[in-house]
Amino acid sequence: MLSRVANSIYWLNRYIERAENVARFIDANYHMALDIPDGANEQWQPLINTTGDHELFKKLYGEATREKAIEFLVFDRNNPNSISSCVRAARENARSVREYISSEMWEQLNTFYLMINNAAKDVSMDLPHQFFVDIMNASHAFIGITDSTMNHGEGWHFGRLGRMLERADKTSRILDVKYFILLPSVDYIGSSYDNILWGALLRSASAFEMYRKRHGRIDPKKIVDFLVLDPHFPRAVHFCIVTAMISMNNITGSPRGTFANKAEQSLGRLLAEFNFASLEDIFSFGLHEYLDMTQTRINEVGAAIHNVFFSPQLVEEATENRTLE
Amino acid sequence: MRFDGYDTEGFYDEIFDAQGNPRPGADLLIERVNALPETELQRRQKAAERALLNLGITFNVYSNEAQTEKIFPFDIVPRILQAKEWDVLERGLKQRIQALNSFIDDVYHEQKILKEGIVPADLVLSADGFRKPCVGLNPPGGIWCHITGTDLVRDGDGKYYVLEDNLRCPSGVSYVLENRLLMKRTFPMVFDACSVQPVTDYPSRLLDMLQGLAAPGVRAPMVVVWTPGIYNSAYFEHSFLAQQMGVPLVEGGDLVVHRGEVMMRTTKGLERVDVIYRRIDDDFMDPKAFRADSMLGVPGLMKAYSKGKVALANAPGTGVADDKAVYAYVPEIIRYYLDEEPIINNVPTYACWREDDRKYVLENLDKLVVKAVNESGGYGMLVGPHSTAAEREEFTKRIQAKPRTYIAQPTLALSRVPVLVDDHFEGRHVDLRPYILYGKDSLYVLPGGLTRVALKKGSLVVNSSQGGGSKDTWVLNAEGGNSPESPMQQQKEGL
Questions:
Q1: Could you say which of A12, A31, A65, A215 would form a disulfide bridge with A93 (CB–CB 3.0 to 4.6 Å)?
Q2: Are strands B416-421 and B69-71 parallel, antiparallel or unpaired?
Q3: Rounded CA gap, B463 and A134, in Å?
Q4: Facing residues of B81 across strands?
Q5: Which of A132, A144, A146, A141 lies closest to A10 in space, CA to CA?
Q6: Euclidean distance between CA atoms A57 and A73, whole angstroms
Q7: Pairing mode of beta strands B350-351, B223-226
Q8: Cβ neighbours around A282 below 10 Å, total
Q9: For each of chain A's 325 residues, which pLDDT tens digit applies?
């Protein structure tokens, strides 16, 4: 397939996943803030830190309040990672590969875009919950439509690769930021206050119900175990990397456990790390350090994918061939 | 919802005659629409518009920063063409494209028609669309204009005239296909009863024609559609056609000339391209051959093309024959190459570079339509009867300064079709753009084509960039058989 097309499919999936995650972060935070009126304001700054855009926010808005945070994270076109910007970018990418993806995918994405655009015009939006649910549903619908209408060939695997890397990154970020804010409350384990806060973290990753089934009681270490290392929970970092690797192998045609290029090699190394990691190792290494390293390595995988598949160095190739002639 | 009270206001109406009676073939449609409950037609019109928006069937508007995408407005009442009428048009269009193709081939080779003085040589060689690098080129089968969208209009006398030959990259065919789809959803019963000639096989015919252009010996030719990109006003159409043909849609950056062949960059390395359906102007195709500042182009493409390594549709250089100045000579061109009389006439044209004509034009600006020869899309135009004194003065200056660049035509009383306006019907002016596919051994005219309608009351400008919309165009079958495309018919056959 065309490199440009692969690039667009990869990115449109990343953008959709990003928009979904931001919506979930906000929704979980919003509901938590309602439960704890005192600490409400302070909880918005960490949320913005999660997205990594705190410097831009400070420049544009200053102090973090609920209204400012929602405006910045949802509608602001000046924030390249706002939901509005992400959906717009996803649609632009989809538009450029409209002939490659299915009409159903395009129609879903276009309707999603029109929905966000209309919401941006409607300033009197006082019940955001349904709005965020709609965003998450639109993303889920897009994934489902993609799975059931598009060939599960190279293009589909590039899409899933993008989505899984994005999701792994986002789960590790929300955990990184929230864990250290919530940590002081470890002293109050078992209090209802504590359950609300840690519950909100799990909800930020749509993990609350699945965590309960797996581990039952709220326990910060088990939460880390669940969000980082669980092999079955679809938003756990480990799960995402396993799935990304399957798609990568499908794209290159390499057998499991081998690699054909730098991108596959760096993703394979990251997977091996997670396959053999334990909670004890992670905490002795330092949770923050571990998550930070994971994010850096996901970025490296992304850069390698770009170099290998999306912008191959043709100039070198051409000269090489000439010398062979 | 009824046609009662609909007034043709003295214009030629496509579905009612001068007495207000339905024209043959239109009675069934009118009967069914009249029978619809109040507000039902509006409901269906709204549903069709919503479908267009959700499907993202839009065009981009230049120089409009806030909103770059618009729906191409669609009116729900179809335009109906009789089989008898259509037969004449089809023959006339085939005749015209064959003559124009011979003309282009001649201009880039022996230039017999210029040497014999049938068409003034300086006029042709100074035309904006004349491309020096194309001299001596031999496109596959000697065919230059593979895809044409000729603009026809019907005057008050009921006769059709050719308004423009669009031989470069005519657009709009995707709207024909989408309009048909919407109409089949909206009016399945009427559609079934009316026996309409199909248009849905256009993408297959286009693909067949394009594959036929590949160099001999290429077994499974790689055909691609080349778009300038998502910001092009016709981007939707480019991607639609690529999708419907199942071929890659490429941008300039995807293509590279490598060891003399045109290749595209894929995730698995370079892959050869055999046929390019290019939707990009000559000027921007190859910075080495045409405009050096083109960022969209592929360096070395023209060299590969001239060596027969890749086929281009349309061939570069076809613009020389749709120059509005050359247009004035098309009847002579038809007589010269085919030794036949034109079946469809030109609109009478005054060429401002001829002294007598210029004098007449300047004296009658308030009655004429003046057009700049190298502008399209309704720009650079003066519609005399609707103009102000200041505009006429401006055009007088322009014509005197550059007579070569202006032609003038009488203002036609373009035929009208009813459109839905709020809760009633009003007549609006229309034109018709049929599409012609010209391959190595095939010549096909899509039955009907795009009916563009000037939605502004009284307006004669049908271009989408200036408030135009479109309608489905139904060419009826002669023998009154069934519509092969009809959903009802397919259902019956399925049972």
A1: A12
A2: unpaired
A3: 38
A4: B475
A5: A146
A6: 9
A7: unpaired
A8: 19
A9: 999 999 999 999 999 999 999 998 888 887 777 776 565 456 788 888 888 888 999 999 988 888 888 889 999 989 999 999 999 999 999 988 988 999 899 999 999 998 998 887 775 556 578 889 999 999 999 999 999 999 999 999 999 999 999 999 999 998 888 777 776 555 555 556 667 778 888 888 888 899 999 998 888 889 999 999 999 999 999 999 999 999 999 999 999 989 999 999 999 999 999 999 999 999 999 999 999 999 999 999 999 999 999 986 654 444 433 333 3
Domains and CATH numbers, chain B: 27-347+412-494 (no CATH), 348-411 (3.30.1490.270)
**What tokens appear for A68 in the block?**
């400012």
Tally of CB atoms within 10 A around A313: 8
The strand pairing partners of B429, in sequence order, are B416
Look up tokens 């994005």; give the residue. A166
DSSP string, B135-203: TT---GGG---SEEE-EEEE-TTS-EEEEE---S----HHHHHHHHHHHHHH-HHHHHHH-B---TTHH
Q: Any idea what DSSP says for residue B44?
A: H
- Choose the closest CB to A4 out of B225, B254, B259: B254
| Residues in a beta bridge with B58 | B71
For B182, the token pair is 């919407």
Of A33, A275, A56, A28, residue with least CA distance to A175: A28
Cβ-based burial of B69 (10 A; exposed 0-12, middle 13-18, buried ≥19): middle
Smallest Cα distance from A122 to chain B, Å: 18
Check residue A41 and report its DSSP letter. G
Judging by DSSP bridges, how do beta strands B74-81 and B147-149 pair with one another? Answer: unpaired
CA distances from A49 to A175, A177, B319 (A): 12, 7, 57
Q: A70, A128 in Cβ contact below 8 A?
A: yes
Amino acid present at A126 = D
> Does B242 contact A6 at a Cβ distance shorter than 8 Å?
no
How many angstroms away from the CA of B238 is the closest CA of chain A? 9
Q: Nearest C-alpha of chain A: how many angstroms from B318?
A: 28
Q: What is the ipTM of this complex?
A: 0.78
Which of A4, A95, A106 shows the shortest C-beta gap to B251?
Answer: A4
Instruction: Give dist(CA B430, CA B451) in Å, integer.
Output: 6
| Residue B407 host element (H or E) | strand B406-410
Distance, CA of A66 to CA of A64 (rounded, Å): 7
* Beta carbons within 8 Å of A313's beta carbon, 6+ residues apart: none
Residue type for A185, please? S
Other beta carbons less than 10 A from residue A144's beta carbon: 11
The residue assigned the tokens 């609350």 is A208
- In A, minimum Cα distance to B264 occurs at A2
Q: Please say whether the beta carbons of B98 and B442 come within 8 A.
A: no
Q: Which position has the token pair 């006439």?
A: B345
Which residue matches tokens 């700054």? A45
Spatial distance between the Cα atoms of B74 and B79, rounded to a whole number of angstroms:
12
Distance CA B370, CA B411 (A): 9
Task: Give the neighbor-by-neighbor strand order of the sheet with B147-149.
Answer: B147-149, B435-439, B442-445
DSSP state of B476: B
Q: Cα(A277)–Cα(A23) distance, rounded to whole angstroms? A: 30
- Is the CB of A107 less than 8 angstroms away from the CB of B258? no
Interface of B with A (CB under 8 A): 53-56, 225, 229-230, 235, 239-240, 242-243, 248-251, 253-254, 256, 258-259, 264-267, 269-270
Q: Where are the alpha helices (DSSP H) in chain A?
A: 3-35, 44-51, 54-61, 66-70, 83-96, 103-121, 128-149, 154-182, 192-204, 208-215, 220-224, 237-252, 262-275, 279-285, 287-305, 314-324
